[in-house]
Amino acid sequence: MSNKPTKWSEAGIANGLAAVALYSGSSTKAARALKEQGLRIPAATLHSWKGRHPEKYQRAQAEVNDRIWSEVGDDWRGTISDAIKATAEAVDKARDAARGDAKEATAFANAAKALSLAGAISTDKSGAVDGRITERKSVLEYRSLAEIFNALSQRFGATYSQGSRTTR
């Protein structure tokens, strides 16, 4: 065994740094994974490359990150498609069951509701992954107590005030 340092090619350095990026900066895990693929780069060498080649390491991190998020986005879009199809199927089954067994119809309706929610959440998450900002709208209304009492009076035909209620 020679103590002579190994001369690594630019491609070897790039592959090593990509492995380190893929393993979230862990030179040890990256060295182990590379060894399993037949490329023996010591963890200490990988660790030193992060410091000696910071631009290459940052580029490797960006490329790995882009690849991972692209795959995640594909997975989310697949989930959306599956949820849409499954929701439509559950709605059809609920409609058919509604003609007979109410319990079965309710079960299919609940399944459709859950699948629809999964699709909506997946749509929202895929937008975030794809860089589309999703708008958040609050379902809360901010009204004064007087406005709330007035709305209750109009809706239910009674006069409300703090601490009491009278009917008209």
What is the general shape? elongated
The parts where pLDDT drops under 50 for at least 5 residues are none
Rg (CA only): 30 Å
SS field, number of helical segments? 6
Sheet-strand content, in percent, reads under 5%
Please provide the ordered H/E string of secondary-structure elements: HHHHHHEE
Structural class: mainly alpha
Helical content class: 55-70%
Cα end-to-end separation: 100 Å
Quaternary structure annotation: single chain
- Strand segment tally: 2
The biggest sheet amounts to: 2 strands, antiparallel
Q: Quick check: average pLDDT?
A: 83
Strands side by side in the biggest sheet = 1-2
What does the secondary structure layout of this molecule look like, with pairings?
Layout (H helix, E strand, L loop, with lengths): L9 H13 L4 H10 L6 H10 L1 H44 L4 H28 L15 H12 L1 E4 L2 E4 L1
Antiparallel strand pairs: 1-2
Helix pairs in contact: 1-2, 1-3, 1-4, 2-3, 4-5
Please sum up the structure shown:
By secondary structure, the protein is mainly alpha-helical. 70% of the residues lie in helices and 5% in strands.
